From TrEMBL:
Protein name (database record): Serine protease
GO cellular component, one term: nucleus
Gene Ontology BP terms: DNA replication
Coiled coil: none
Any Pfam family hit: Trypsin_2
Source organism of this protein record: Lates calcarifer (Barramundi)
Length: 547
């Protein structure tokens, strides 16, 4: 089969098998397509749509969209007017349009990209009841599954917003149109004046700069609406600042030395013939790691008979060097919590070295419980972090990164998807995949938004259970998972997350109390008494908010 390769702007996607009934935009959200729905994709020589910046938007659940239909036949005062960017769409009865609830009809059609840029102050007439009109400034919320015709004002050409007021009005109108085209390009993609010139079709640089100066108040207002207060300047500086902060924090020798020392407590977890992950010493012989490593291999807090678990320390050099040592794990788990995705396992006391006999007792490295701390308070900014683990089951690695604040998570995902903006099917596949994985849950307003810490890292499979450190050397997170997608021989993630360790500690202590394990609880209290954050949790009568 020969792969069809063409630009998104030349693609036509028919929705359903019914002959030439409706078509959708190339950025139509997959959540709005019924399961087993047929999509017929074809290519046209001319430009069908000019949507910009849509293919890497996060896909929301179906309930957050309103999907409606625009008839190819216009309503009143449109018989001689062009409504669509290409006449090719008129081969179909309807253009299927979507809009996030809360957006206006005008915004939805502009975002669609298949309609001309200058529709003006149009209205929509309901196909079932033509006397019912919807203004272009109204919200799309109540339009779902309805069909409409576009109607224009009497004696108004498409795009004419104002009457001519003097003999120079026609020139002013032309300037307004040209200015609006440039403004639209700039708003949609944040491009330079040069790019705006190319996309708007103008070649008069001096004129364009003058128009840009004239429209400055409108641009400033739009910027202020998008970036309140000083957030616009903060957004411009953010990436540069983050990179500089990470360089500064994790290039200072004393910090690196401290992290390397703490990293001695990090181990590779091997569930024989099942999977590999990462863990770290909590205290004594107890290891903290992710619960999902043992999914399907635990019955009533015990590993199945044929399930063997090992913890490898000092696994820092690639084979054939075998300088690491390992411990086997007890069959009974100390604690396991699916919601917070953590497990506490106990090591057998006798450590071993591969292919070597030793009479010297091998000690478990120091625990990190006493180093537990809160999630760095980032506010609107992002804070430094560093992950130490065994990605892909390989040697120990460390990855300096920074925490992505809640309000910036969606933008971080969009920035990642922007890498594939010219490849429609990859973007749509990735967005559908991460939507099914539940990425909406960690976005602002999601049910897990406040309960996880997010960041970007190359630590994918095999690093689950890694400790996440702050710039002071405190460990605050248990690296747990990411929203992943894959190519052959290669897996990537749009964003990753950790569970806060103070939250895990609170749950661990509560579970020990519930089980009545006083002996282990005493050990925990003894180890935690030097840590102010852990003491507060132990002394609290009720579970506290530790995030």
């Amino acid at each position: 089969m020969r792969m069809m390769k063409c630009a998104n702007e030349n693609i036509v996607i028919q929705l359903g098998k019914e002959d030439r009934k409706s078509i959708v935009a190339t950025h139509f959200p997959c959540s709005c397509i019924r399961e087993d729905e047929c999509l017929i994709i074809s290519q046209k020589p001319e430009k069908i749509e000019a949507a910009q910046g849509q293919h890497y938007k996060v896909i929301h659940p179906r309930g957050k969209y309103s999907v409606f239909y625009i008839d190819k036949e216009g309503g009143v005062h449109t018989k001689t007017k062009e409504l669509f960017r290409s006449n090719a769409v008129k081969q179909f009865k309807y253009l299927c349009v979507y809009g996030e609830k809360g957006t206006t009809v005008e915004e939805a059609l502009k975002r669609d990209g298949r309609f001309i840029d200058d529709l003006g102050k149009f209205k929509l007439s309901d196909n079932e009841n033509p006397n019912v009109l919807t203004e272009c400034t109204q919200k799309v919320d109540n339009l779902d599954q309805k069909a409409f015709k576009i109607c224009l004002p009497l004696n108004k050409r498409v795009g004419d917003e104002k009457q001519q007021e003097n003999s120079g009005a026609s020139n002013n109108l032309q300037q307004e149109r040209e200015m609006r085209r440039i403004s639209d390009v700039a708003k949609q993609s944040g491009v330079s004046v040069k790019t705006a010139l190319e996309k708007s079709g103008s070649s008069n640089t001096k004129k364009i700069y003058e128009l840009l100066r004239q429209q400055f108040p409108d641009l400033k207002k739009w910027m202020e609406e998008r970036f309140t207060g000083d957030s616009y300047q903060e957004e411009l500086k953010l990436r540069k600042e983050n990179f500089g902060k990470i360089q500064q924090s994790f290039s200072e020798v004393h910090r690196v030395r401290k992290l390397l020392k703490l990293g001695e407590s990090v181990c590779k977890i091997v569930v024989k013939d099942v999977c590999e992950g990462t863990g770290f010493v909590l205290f004594d012989n107890f290891i903290l790691t992710n619960a999902h490593l043992f999914k399907g291999h635990v019955n009533e807090r015990k590993f199945q008979v044929d399930t063997d678990v090992l913890a490898l320390f000092d696994y820092e050099e690639p084979e054939p060097d075998i300088n690491y040592y390992y411990f086997t794990c007890e069959k009974t788990l100390i604690d396991l919590d699916v919601e917070l995705d953590y497990a506490v396992i106990e090591l057998n006391p006798e450590g071993q070295r591969p292919n070597k006999k030793t009479t010297k007792k091998i000690k478990v490295p120091p625990g990190l419980l006493e180093k537990f701390g809160p999630v760095p308070k980032s506010g609107d900014k992002d804070s430094e972090a560093c992950i130490i683990g065994h990605p892909a089951g390989g040697v120990k690695k460390m990855d300096p990164t920074f925490i992505t604040a809640i309000q910036r998570r969606e933008q971080a995902v969009n920035d990642h998807l922007h890498l594939y903006k010219d490849t429609l099917f990859i973007v749509q596949s990735i967005t559908e995949l991460i939507t099914r994985q539940g990425i909406e849950n960690i976005m602002m307003g999601g049910n897990k938004a406040d309960s996880v810490v997010t960041y970007n890292t190359f630590m994918y499979h095999g690093s689950s259970g890694s400790p996440v450190f702050d710039a002071l050397g405190r460990v605050f997170g248990l690296h747990s998972a990411g929203y992943t997608y894959g190519f052959p021989q290669h897996t990537k993630s749009v964003i990753e997350f950790a569970h806060p360790l103070l939250t895990i500690f609170d749950r661990f202590v509560s579970n020990l109390k519930e089980k009545g394990d006083e002996k282990l609880l005493e050990k925990v209290e003894e180890k935690a008494k030097k840590n102010q954050y852990l003491k507060e949790i132990l002394e609290a009568d009720e579970p506290m908010d530790t995030n």
